[in-house]
Design a protein that fits this description.
The chain has 311 residues and is of the alpha+beta class. The chain has 2 domains: 50-162, no CATH class; 165-300, Umud Fragment, subunit A, CATH 2.10.109. The chain has helices at 12-19, 47-65, 69-73, 77-94, 103-126, 140-161, 250-253; strands at 23-24, 27-28, 164-168, 183-187, 201-206, 209-217, 222-226, 229-232, 235-236, 255-259, 264-268, 286-287, 291-300.
C-alpha cells in the first residue's frame, strides 16, 4: 500500500512567514507590563455591604432598648441570652425584691440599667459576626443617648409597677423635714397589709389634692395641744423634727382633747406654725382609706438633701 505524503517543496518566503514573529510596521511586538507604581482605582462598595452595616446599627439600637435582642439577631445566642438574663435580674430588683424602698437600692438599679443598656448596645455594634460587619464607633454618639433614655424609662415604668411613685412637694408645711420643691418617693403598697403608725410621714388625698403630713395620733388615741406642745394619751411627745417660727395662732396652740375614732388619723405638718392640718376644723381628721402610701426618702432636692430618709 502506498502512503501519499505532501512532499511539495516550500518556498523560502513561506518558511519565513511561518517562523517570523508578528510585527507592527515592521517591528517586533513588545510585551507590555503594568508599572509597579501604577495607581489602582479602588472597587466601589457593594450595596450588600451597606445593607449589612445598616443591619448592624439596627441590631445595636435594639440592644440599647432591650438588652440581648440585637445579639440574638446577630446570631450570638449565648451573649443574647446572657444580656436578657441580666435584664431579668434588674426587673427582679424592682419586684419582688423591692430595692427602691431605700435610696441606695434605687441608685443601684438606676446605674445598673444605664450600664446594661449601654454595654449591650456597644457589644451589638462591635462584636465580630459572620452575618454582619462591625459598625463604626461613631455610632456610639447616637447609641449612648438612646441607652440612657431607655434606662430612665425602664426605671419609671418599673417603679410604678412595683408600687412606688414620686411626688413633688410645692408647700412649706413639712419644713425642715421636706422643703418646698423637693421630690419624695412614696411606697403605695406599704399600707395594704398594715396600718399607719405614729410618726409615719404619709401621703393622702383630700378633695382631689395630695398632702404630705406626719401621723401624730391614730384611732383610739386622745390628743391635746397645750402651749405648742403635743400630748398623746397624756404623754408629751418628743418631736425633734418640729419647726416653730414663733407665730403660732391660738387655735393651733391650744386644742383638744380630741379622741380619735377607729379608722381615723390626726395628721400635722412639721412646720407647725404655718401648716394647715388636722388642728383646723375645716381640715379635720384623715380617714385611713384616703392614705395613698408612706413617704420613704427625698429623691430630688435643690438643697443637697438627696437620700434623706423620712422614716
Amino acid at each position: 500500500m502506498l502512503l501519499l505524503q505532501d512532499r511539495s517543496p516550500r518556498s523560502a518566503l513561506e518558511k519565513a512567514l511561518i517562523f517570523k514573529k508578528p510585527t507592527t510596521h515592521g517591528l517586533p511586538l513588545a510585551t507590555v507590563e503594568r508599572p509597579s507604581n501604577t495607581a489602582v482605582t479602588p472597587e466601589a462598595p457593594r450595596p450588600e455591604i451597606k445593607t449589612r452595616q445598616t443591619w448592624r446599627v439596627i441590631a445595636s439600637v435594639c440592644s440599647s432598648i432591650l438588652p440581648g435582642s440585637g445579639q440574638l439577631w446577630l446570631g450570638k445566642k449565648l451573649a443574647g441570652i446572657g444580656f436578657l438574663c441580666a435584664f431579668s435580674l434588674l426587673v427582679l430588683g424592682y419586684w419582688p425584691l423591692r430595692l427602691p424602698r431605700s435610696y441606695v437600692g434605687i441608685q443601684v438599679l438606676i446605674f445598673a440599667a444605664m450600664g446594661l443598656c449601654t454595654a449591650a448596645a456597644w457589644h451589638a455594634l462591635r462584636t465580630p459576626s459572620q452575618r454582619m460587619i462591625q459598625g463604626s464607633r461613631l455610632w456610639l454618639f447616637v447609641l449612648v443617648p438612646i441607652s440612657l433614655l431607655a434606662s430612665f424609662a425602664y426605671n419609671n415604668w418599673f417603679l410604678l409597677a412595683a408600687g412606688f411613685r414620686p411626688f413633688d412637694v410645692p408647700s412649706t408645711g413639712m419644713e425642715q423635714t421636706v422643703l418646698s420643691g423637693d421630690r419624695v418617693i412614696a411606697d403605695l403598697r406599704q399600707y395594704r397589709n398594715s396600718r399607719p403608725k405614729r410618726c409615719n410621714v404619709v401621703i393622702f388625698s383630700k378633695n382631689g389634692t395630695f398632702f404630705i403630713k406626719r401621723v401624730v395620733a391614730v384611732g383610739g388615741d386622745t390628743i391635746e395641744g397645750k402651749d405648742g406642745a403635743i400630748f398623746v394619751n397624756g404623754q408629751r411627745l418628743n418631736e425633734p423634727y418640729v419647726r416653730h417660727l414663733g407665730n403660732l395662732s391660738l387655735v393651733s396652740n391650744e386644742f383638744g382633747p380630741v379622741e380619735i375614732a377607729s379608722g381615723e388619723l390626726f395628721a400635722m405638718g412639721d412646720n407647725r406654725d404655718v401648716s394647715r392640718d388636722s388642728r383646723m376644723a375645716d381640715f379635720g381628721l384623715v380617714p385611713e382609706k384616703t392614705v395613698a402610701g408612706e413617704a420613704l426618702y427625698i429623691i430630688r432636692s435643690k438643697w443637697g438633701r438627696l437620700g434623706n430618709d423620712l422614716r
